[in-house]
């Protein structure tokens, strides 16, 4: 892929990234951070590519270390985020109707 | 292994990128958050499966083995970690992600002669190393392996400047020479910069730094995507970098701080002052039975939970106490400061875990005017978030942070281990006010005693 196309994609991704979290309530800051943390674990794809092309044993060893670290980031990130959010679900069952408005109040407060 | 058509690879990566965007979008609302996270995990699984079929791969058994090791370590830890220790685990996962990005960039250095790619490589090396080392220090601070107070020493600002200058010089050198040795020097300088960046940050601000380092790792991943020419890494990394930046600012705003103030506040001096002196002023301490009487004959009680409640695992007892008081016809609410616990929203998670009904959890803006009508404000293991110094003492590190107006309540009861300062390291004058009563002890023990005394009334 040529440089200009990558640059275009990067710039658009910046705006999507800004837009997608601009109104989040402070209650969800922690899970959102944790979820974003899990997403950058996708560096695993890069680590796999490098490891798959390694011929030197040392290069392979370092690449495999990167695979281990990236997998820990990816898998651990999604699991811990899910655990946090599991608890929000428990609460929703008890009071399904109340939730949206209370969250709105928080959103205002969080972004003030 | 037969490879799939590159067009399919691109389409599958596109699908994964869309999953990540939907994941972040879903995490905006409690109703869709869990699904959002699962969509993100699905996208990641899709992308990882795709990569095996998109490029010629050797060492596949080794790679699969390494993935088993990585998930075998991380998944059980993530599943079993106490919710109170969750912030440091997020910091740890963030750090290893940054480390992985730096390693990938290091290995790609030998494969390229292109200066533009080398620029992306040095960026990944530096930012990944900063994120790795910074997250390590953050982890140590949250785990209390080291002091939670800001660590400053004379010469820190010039040292930081020297490290950064040397890093830039090394980076330029790597771009021109492609030298692996110089790249390793750059990594070491990055690690040093990460340590120096986080050391001066006070304990209470550490969560914001985690968020910032999270954005850093995102940028490192995006840059490594440029190195490998992998669009998915570019998109996912950029998404995290951009959203992480916004999130960091939103978190800082919730604490009434600026990001620059958090990072460089201690450099300017003064912000750590006045916190070491432990006062010997008299306080009014009391017994669990007295506190039970105060609570049991009140009409309205507001409970202010803090990190002390969480470390003592007392949230279930607090929920029981609230229930027992409500059975006596007393109006009970929980006042949640945006940064109660150790991260924004942390306390909501902990109390939700203890099945406190959602309607009892009141946000700061909502409850602050109601303290005036409360007979008792019961502060359990919280300190900085109710410290009037945030309003009155201009030199204080927490000055400007919005606080819960506990002092407006007719009576204030602190359940605390001691009068020692909170996480931010600042003494709380409220403890010495005449309307304040202190009950010393572990938050859970105290709550258990108060609970049984209330039941005996």
TrEMBL record, chain A:
Keywords: Cell inner membrane, Cell membrane, Membrane, NAD, NADP, Translocase, Transmembrane, Transmembrane helix. Residues 98-112 have a biased composition (Basic and acidic residues). GO terms for molecular function: NADP binding; proton-translocating NAD(P)+ transhydrogenase activity. GO terms for cellular component: plasma membrane. Its EC number is 7.1.1.1. This is proton-translocating NAD(P)(+) transhydrogenase. The chain crosses the membrane at residues 6-22, 34-52, 58-81. InterPro entries: NADP_transhyd_a_C (IPR024605). It catalyses: NAD(+) + NADPH + H(+)(in) = NADH + NADP(+) + H(+)(out). It is an enzyme of class 7 (translocase). Residues 93-112 are annotated as: Disordered. Residues 7-89 form the NAD(P) transhydrogenase alpha subunit C-terminal domain. It is a multi-pass membrane protein. Pfam families: PNTB_4TM. It is found in: Cell inner membrane. GO terms for biological process: NADPH regeneration. The transhydrogenation between NADH and NADP is coupled to respiration and ATP hydrolysis and functions as a proton pump across the membrane.
From TrEMBL, chain B:
GO terms for cellular component: plasma membrane. It holds the Pfam family PNTB. It comes from the Bacteria. Gene3D superfamilies: TPP-binding domain. Its EC number is 7.1.1.1. InterPro entries: DHS-like_NAD/FAD-binding_dom (IPR029035), NADH_DH_b (IPR012136), PNTB-like (IPR034300). Belongs to the PNT beta subunit family. This is NAD(P) transhydrogenase subunit beta. GO terms for molecular function: NADP binding; proton-translocating NAD(P)+ transhydrogenase activity. It comes from Arthrobacter terricola. Keywords: Cell inner membrane, Cell membrane, Membrane, NAD, NADP, Translocase, Transmembrane, Transmembrane helix. It is a multi-pass membrane protein. Residues 10-452 form the NADP transhydrogenase beta-like domain. The chain crosses the membrane at residues 6-24, 36-54, 60-77, 89-107, 119-139, 151-176, 182-201, 213-240. The transhydrogenation between NADH and NADP is coupled to respiration and ATP hydrolysis and functions as a proton pump across the membrane. It catalyses: NAD(+) + NADPH + H(+)(in) = NADH + NADP(+) + H(+)(out). It is found in: Cell inner membrane.
């Amino acid at each position: 892929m040529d440089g200009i196309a990558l640059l275009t994609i990067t710039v658009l991704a910046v705006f999507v990234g800004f837009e997608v979290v601009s109104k989040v309530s402070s209650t969800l800051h922690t899970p959102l951070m944790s979820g974003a943390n899990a997403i950058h674990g996708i560096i695993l794809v890069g680590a796999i590519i490098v490891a798959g092309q390694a011929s030197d044993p040392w290069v392979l060893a370092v690449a495999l270390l990167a695979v281990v670290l990236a997998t820990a980031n990816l898998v651990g990130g999604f699991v811990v985020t899910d655990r946090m959010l599991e608890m929000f679900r428990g609460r929703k069952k008890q009071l399904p109707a109340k939730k949206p408005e209370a969250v709105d109040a928080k959103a205002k407060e969080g972004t003030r | 292994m037969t490879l799939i058509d590159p067009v399919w690879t691109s389409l599958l990566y596109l699908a994964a990128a869309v999953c990540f965007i939907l994941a972040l979008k879903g995490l905006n609302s409690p109703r869709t958050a869990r699904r959002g996270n699962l969509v993100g995990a699905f996208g990641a699984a899709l992308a990882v499966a795709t990569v095996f079929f998109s490029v010629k791969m050797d060492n596949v058994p080794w790679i699969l083995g390494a993935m088993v090791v990585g998930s075998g370590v991380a998944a059980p830890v993530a599943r079993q970690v106490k919710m109170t220790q969750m912030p440091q685990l997020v910091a740890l996962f963030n750090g290893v992600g940054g480390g992985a990005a730096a390693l990938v960039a290091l290995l790609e250095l030998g494969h390229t002669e292109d200066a533009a790619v080398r620029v992306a490589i040095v960026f990944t090396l530096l930012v990944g190393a900063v994120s790795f080392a910074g997250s390590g220090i953050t982890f140590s601070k949250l785990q209390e392996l080291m002091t939670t107070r800001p660590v400053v020493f004379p010469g820190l600002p010039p040292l930081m400047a020297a490290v950064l200058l040397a890093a830039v010089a090394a980076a330029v050198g790597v771009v021109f020479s492609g030298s692996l040795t110089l790249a390793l020097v750059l990594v070491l300088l990055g690690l040093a910069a990460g340590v120096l960046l986080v050391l001066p940050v006070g304990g209470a601000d550490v969560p914001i730094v985690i968020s910032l380092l999270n954005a850093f790792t995102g940028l490192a991943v995006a840059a490594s995507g440029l190195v490998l020419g992998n669009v998915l890494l570019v998109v996912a990394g950029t998404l995290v970098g951009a959203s992480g930046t916004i999130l960091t600012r939103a978190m800082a705003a919730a604490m009434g701080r600026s990001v620059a103030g958090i990072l460089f506040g201690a450099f300017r001096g003064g912000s750590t002052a006045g916190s070491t002196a432990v006062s010997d002023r008299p306080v009014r301490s009391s017994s669990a039975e007295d506190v039970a009487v105060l609570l049991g004959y009140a009409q309205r009680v507001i409970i202010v939970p803090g990190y002390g409640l969480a470390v003592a695992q007392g949230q279930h007892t607090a929920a029981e106490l609230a229930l027992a008081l409500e059975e006596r016809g007393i109006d009970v609410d929980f006042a949640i400061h945006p940064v109660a616990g150790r991260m924004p929203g942390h306390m909501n998670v902990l109390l939700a875990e203890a099945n406190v009904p959602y309607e009892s959890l009141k946000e700061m803006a909502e409850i602050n005017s109601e303290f005036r009508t409360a007979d008792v404000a019961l502060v359990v293991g919280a300190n900085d978030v109710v410290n009037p110094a945030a309003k009155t003492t201009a030199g204080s590190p927490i000055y400007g942070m919005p606080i819960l107006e506990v002092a407006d309540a007719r009576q204030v009861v602190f359940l605390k281990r001691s009068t020692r300062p909170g996480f931010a390291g600042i003494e709380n004058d409220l403890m010495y006010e005449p309307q304040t009563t202190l009950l010393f002890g572990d938050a859970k023990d105290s709550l258990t005693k108060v609970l049984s005394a209330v039941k005996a009334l």
